[in-house]
Structure formats: structure tokens, C-alpha cells
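User: C-alpha cells for both sequences below?

Assistant:
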Amino acid sequence: MRLGLRTKMMVILGLLGFTSILNFGALVVTERNASKHLSWVLHTQDVIRQGEAFLGHMRDAETGQRGFLLTNLPKYLAPYDTGVKNARADLAALRTLTRDNPRQQKRLNSVQRLMDEKLTELADTIQLAQGGGLDSALVIVKTDAGRRAMDILRGEMQEFKAEESRLLRLRQSELAASQRNTRILFAMEALLLLSLITFIGFHIQKYLVSPILKLTENARRMAAGEGVEKISVVNRDEVGELVEGFEKMHRQVQSRTESLSQARQEAESANVAKSEFLAMMSHDLRTPLNAIIGFSDMIKSGVYGPIGDPRYSEYLEDINKSGMLLLSLINVVLDLAKIEAGKFELLEERVDLQSFLLSSVELISLQARERQIDLTFHAQEDFPNLQCDPRTLAQIINNLLSNAIKFTEANGSVTVSTLAAQDGAILIRVEDSGIGMDEDGIKRALEPFGRVDSALTRSQEGTGLGLHVSKLLIERQGGSLDIESSPGEGTTVTARFPPERALAIGQNALAG
């Protein structure tokens, strides 16, 4: 019968639990026995101390009697009274403590008789002395009857103590044996538990941890594109099924990876072919477009004479604008094709950034005035020059300014500024008070042919390639393009060039 992983774990936990309960029970029993022996040892020690206290109090009573007979002073009766009272209490306590020992009870009966005889002799002599019969009291004392009773009583108590001492040694021996057995049992139980844990740990390591670690390593190797090792399945449980499932998944991933690799190669080939086609078509289209634009300019300027009908002038203006727009689109598509094909070359040189931006702002200022937009440029003195490709820089700035003006309504504002970052990077910032974008809009704006969906954007011309191409062009020069925007609150686009492209005034540009 095949046991699942959960069943195995339940069996292991049950075995551990049973062993722990068994060990705990054994420890409780041995500890209880040890406590029992210890209580008997303490009991016997109490009996011995009580017996010694009894003899001490009898001596106190005898001493008080002698002091009174010799001095006839009442103050000696205090230790006598205290001794008598405590001696009787001690003997009662001894009877209670030894009620489980018939032999000691019998011996205490004899002690009781001797104590009564001695105390009677003490009481009689004191009474005679108090009544003026001191001589009669001394006669009783001189008979030595009290001394003999006291000697016999001491002998009985010595035998009583000897018996308790024997019991004490026996019980101390039993206590030591019990404690020794407890230690031995504890060591055996610990050894048994350790052996069980070691056995369980070995099987968990072999049948659970080791396969999972190998699976983890194979997953890492698979993620890194490396080959995986074969894992032998020991048991047909969940771990075995997991190993088989992983290996099946690995075979599927290998098959799909090969398919994807082939598809990627085909896609790359198709992309190269597309880029080459676009480059070729863009080149072939630019030649007739340049002719259309050039001839329309000549006709508009009346090089060979005036145009007869004024409506032709309007048509020529539309032809010229359409040709310029189409030429701009073809140039953007051609640049995109070159970048994707890896054939875009940068022709770098030293650029006076402040003058360059001022010229760019002046070129587009007419468009801003036509749309009634306030276009300003904040120039800084002694601002570093920039090593870059001027043509791509012009395209980036023109795209950013065109977008800012295009998506800003009348009476809005567009501001261009430069800023040196703390790490020395050069920042070109274009801020507008236009319609703005949300996060999804920013993502779409940076994608090829991406356009933000709004009533204003739908009324504007454009392919949606401007920001995408600008981002690619600035990244080719080690920089980045960042957009911050909120709907209805405008947009800020920052073109960042790395610190190594910043040139101090008078510094020679690096080789392009």
C-alpha cells in the first residue's frame, strides 16, 4: 500500500508524540518514587530531632528542680515548668511521627512510664521544698530513684535513636538508588528520543529535503538556462509526483523554448527585413517628396511668373504643408528603422546647449503664437556645453516642444529650461499646462504609435512616434527620458544626458 506524504508525516508525528508521552510518564513515576523516598528521609530526620529535643527538655526540667532545691528561689521553677510542658509535647509528637512503627511505639510506652516516674519525683521534691520540708525532699533525691529512671530513659531514647538512624540510612540508600535510577532512565529516554529523531531526520532528509533541494537547484539551473540533473524517485508519494511533474514541466519548457527560439529567430529575421524595407521605402519616397516640396515652393514664390487663379495659391500651400508633414513622418520612420536594425550612427560634436535651445524655441515660436500659447525659455549663465549628435538633439527637442504645444489649449504655457543635476548630469526640461496624462497614458505615449485618447488629441495630427523615437535616440547617447504628468494638470518631460557628456566652457569635446 502506497503511503502519502501526509500519512507519513502523521505517522512520524504520532510516533514522536507516543514516545514523548511514554518518556514523560516514566519520568513522572520515577520522580514520584524519588519524592516519596525523600519525604521518608526527611520524616526520619524529624523523628531524630524530636527525640533529641525531648531529652533536652527533660534535662531542663531536672536542672530547674535542682536549682530550686539548692537555692529555694522561685526563678528556677520557670525552666522546670517549661521543660515539663515541652517534654510532654515532644513525646506526644514522637508518638504521632512513629505511629506506623509498632516497635518504636512500644519503646515509647516504656519511655512514657519512665518520664512519668521521673516527673513525679521532680514534682514531689519541689512540693515538699515549697512546704518547708526541704530535708524530706533531699531524702527522696538521695534515694537515686530519679537518677536511675533518668538513666534508663536515656538508654531507651538511645535505642529509639539507633532504630531511627538505621531507618535513616536505609531510606537514604533507597533515595540515592531512586535518584540514580531516575538519571539512568532519563539518559536512556534521551538516547531513545535522540535515536528516534535521528532516524526520522535521516528519512526526512533522504525522502523529502534532498529531493526538494535538488528540485530547487534544478529550478535555478533551468531559470539560468543551464541543464538540469536527473532526480531518482525513491517513493511514489507527493514528493515523487512533484519530481515527475517538474521533469515533465522541464521537458515542456525545453520544447517550448526551442519553439520560441525558432520563432524569435524568424521574428528577428522578419524585423530586419521590415527595417530594411522601411529604410529602402523611406529613401525612395523622400526623393519625389523633395521634388514636390521644392516645386511647390518655386510655384508659390512665382519664379517663372505669377499664378493665375488665387485658389491655386491655397492648393499649393496645402500641397507644401502635406509634403512637409509626410517628409517628417518618413524621416521618423527611417530613423526608427535604423535604430531597430542597429545601423543608426551618432555624429557627435560640441554643442552650445543654451544657444541651441534658444534657436529651437525661436523656430517653433510661430506655432505657439498661432495657438495663443506662452512659450518661454529659462537660460542659465555659464551652463556647461553638451557633447552629442546635434541632429538627434534637434529632433528630440522639436518632438518635445511640438507635443507640448499640440496638447496645450489656448492661453496655456510651455516652458523650456536647463538644469545641472547633483551628479553632474544635464537635464533639459519641457513643462506645459496642457491636458496631462494618467499612468496608462504615459505608458501608451512612450510606445510606438501610441496616442493618449482624448478629444484634444484626436483633433491633432501625428503618428504617435515622436516620444518613442526621442526616447530611443536619447538612450543611444546613454541618457533617459522621464515623464511626470497628471490629467488636467499638465506634463513635465525631462531629457537626461549623463555626466560624462557635460563639457565645461572651454573644454574640448571627446572624440565622436
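Moving on to the next sequence.
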Amino acid sequence: MDYQVILSPKALGDLEIIIRYIAHDNPEAARKICQRLLEKTKELSQFPFKRQKVSEFDEPDIRQLILKPYRIIYRVEEDKKQVSIARFWHASRFSPEL
């Protein structure tokens, strides 16, 4: 059974910030990166534990998917069959806050 993938309010805010920042110089590139990030999240509906743990957190249900230079940080809620996207985080930034 596939997991449902949902975006947290913080993740949606992250996407908005990313889009605005890139769109300032290149609106088409902003649209493309947003689309690619959202497409990557769909991959998590199957085998969400396949991805690596987040080193900053010592919790087996917090994982990440890399789409350079971004980290898609998510929590697997196995009992709900749900993947909650917590953050879209630029790799050059300090440690993510959930």
C-alpha cells in the first residue's frame, strides 16, 4: 500500500521562499525547480524508509531526499501510512529546524 504524501505549512513556506528568491532573476527556473521538488516528493509514496536518515536528528522516522542543492526532509508516520514533508532546505544553510 502506498503512503500518502502531504506538505506541512513550513514546507509550503519554504517552497514560496525558494520560488520568490529564484524568480527574482529567472521566473522560468523558479517554476522548474518548484516542479522538480514537488515531483521528487511523489517518489516517497513508495518505500519512504529507503532514503537516508537525517544526521542532525537521531530519529529513524525522519529522513531526507536530496535534489541538489536542496534537501527534502520528511517524517514517515507508518501507523497512518503517511509521509509528511517537513522542510525544503537549501544544503548551504545551517541545520534544519522541524
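User: Anything stand out in the second?

Assistant: The mean pLDDT is 92.
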